[in-house]
TrEMBL record, chains A, B:
Alphabetical keyword list: DNA-binding, Transcription, Transcription regulation
One Pfam family, short name: HTH_1
Domain HTH lysR-type: 3-58
Designated name of the protein: DNA-binding transcriptional regulator, LysR family
Length: 295, 295
DNA sequence: CATCCAGCATTAGCGATACTGATGCACATG
DNA sequence: CATGTGCATCAGTATCGCTAATGCTGGATG
């Protein structure tokens, strides 16, 4: 009865639905059960966790919410990790890819793997950045491909919810995408610091997210001027071309977009890297693909 | 009954004690209850988790063990985090320090804080590196001080079991400790790569651990020639002086040890940094000390 | 200000659960 | 082959965790 994941799950549902009854419906309980769950949790922790009428988290509840999601995720990850043990050679490979992570070289390796292992079904899923790690942890995907900006020898930051290894697959220079007529568009290279106060587009599911940029460059700048929720690189290019702001992309991608110019970033020394994420004990086919990607 | 922390706890106890009965005694249960707990877990996960006679984890059990400790830690962290909310101004400040983290400057800041806040009881605890973060997360300490080697702008690696912030307190050059008669002892500075194949002493609770060194320098070398389990820097100095191997230390500390020479490391660009760890919502006094340490 | 109502709390009751204590059974040891 | 250690199993019981019904409270409405 101590901090039962079950109680946490209904707590999260209550906070998200902002209603006991709605949470009950969503979870397949009665409203009474939900009420008792919350009461039990509050009793256990000795504090009020949700304010009623209107329903919402208290300060303590907000704290708990920060823990609840990772906790529940890790539970699923543990389940998946245990389930993977002893799993025979599966005939299906599920890949979770970040938006810009599926490069021609990766696709080539994958094609060669399929050629060498007849009967292998492959399932490629494109997800948002955070969801990739989650899919690998929970076993929804056999492998994950993420990308982002980092110093040349630093690994990409990954939410740590379980034993998972990231291996570099490919690196290329990082570029900033400017509209073709931009005053800086003729430069051979640019320093990131000079652009900290420029207008930026935050496109966390398409380009390098501004948060990553801030972390990698160790600064406070890069405040978003516009937020782009799509996963389509061309759409982002259109926005940049129209002058809505700048975006950071791997150089080869930036060079391919019409109406814009991709200028290589010279300082700080950052690269765009694709990494493959795999669980501690991946299936045989997955292991094989990891070998090809990194070998 | 899905993956109850209770069941996990007894699972961990069983694996650690390598016995159902011993685990039962440790947990205050009957042997029967423990047997049923394990059976329930195995039934839930659909795999055998522990081998009996002799008792030990199966492959799946080993996987689960990797998750169990962080999971239980995070549960305690969540508890502590929630309990901290609304806590009035406490009159006692508990500091968890890593072995080399308690520098003169830190002690000075602490002394000034005590002078300014009469009636403040301070409790300083020296712990191993991993235990510091754990103490902060579980609320056993209000603040933690850790140290280690890292690239100048990189944060120290901290086990991610909850919302916790690390702020740099002090940085100084990293040095390698050589016996006084060592052939390289007259050098003005040394490159770490040249020492990768030397004999090293692994002293994770005293000097910079070799694991950190490997990670920071991105290499495979630094295989331990001798392991030193103590937390006493002078004892480590004696071992180095006697030629048992080398160790990495902050320069000022290395310079103070007799019979040895501390040579500054010039490449890769690594520093020894002390960071203060605090939970998301630290108590008022703790917050004040953080301000003084970092300000 | 009276009424209504949406929605959370409370309670009784019952089936499921989680313990204990006793017993069974398998394996290692001498 | 006898013995003992230690896990599995089983019966019994207290407790838990649900549902269904009912109570209660704060806000909207005229």
């Amino acid at each position: 009865m101590h901090m039962d994941p079950h109680l946490l799950r209904t707590f999260v549902a209550v906070v998200e639905h902002r209603s006991f009854s709605a949470a009950a419906r969503a979870l397949g309980y009665t409203q009474s059960a939900v009420s008792q769950h919350i009461a039990a949790l509050e009793n256990d922790l000795g504090t009020r966790l949700v304010e009623r009428r209107p329903v919402g988290p208290t300060a303590a509840g907000e704290r708990l919410m920060e823990h609840a999601a990772p906790l529940l995720l890790r539970i699923d990850a543990a389940r998946a990790d245990v389930a993977r043990v002893g799993r025979a050679h599966p005939t299906r490979l599920t890949l979770a890819c970040g938006p810009v992570a599926l490069t021609p070289s990766v696709a080539g390796d994958l094609a060669r793997l399929r050629a060498d292992t007849p009967g292998l079904a492959v399932d490629v899923q494109v997800l948002g950045r955070a969801a990739v790690a989650q899919a690998v942890l929970t076993g929804a995907a056999d492998l994950g491909l993420i990308d982002g900006a980092a110093a040349p020898s630093d690994p990409l930051p990954v939410p740590d919810a379980g034993p998972m290894t990231g291996l570099a697959v490919a690196e290329q220079p990082l570029a900033v995408l400017l509209p073709a007529g931009h005053p800086l568009a003729h430069r051979g290279s640019l320093r990131l610091f000079d652009l900290a106060d420029a207008h930026w587009i935050d496109a966390p599911d398409t380009a390098v997210s501004l948060g990553q940029l801030r972390a990698a460059a160790n600064t406070d700048g890069f405040r978003p001027h516009l937020t782009y929720g799509g996963t389509d690189v061309y759409g982002l290019g259109v926005l940049v071309a129209a002058g809505h702001g700048l975006a950071a992309l791997p150089l080869s991608l930036a060079a391919a977009l019409p109406g814009t110019v991709g200028i290589r970033l010279s300082a700080p020394r950052l690269v765009h890297r694709v990494e493959v994420l795999h669980p501690r004990a991946p299936a045989a086919v997955a292991q094989e693909l990891v070998g090809r990607l990194t070998g």
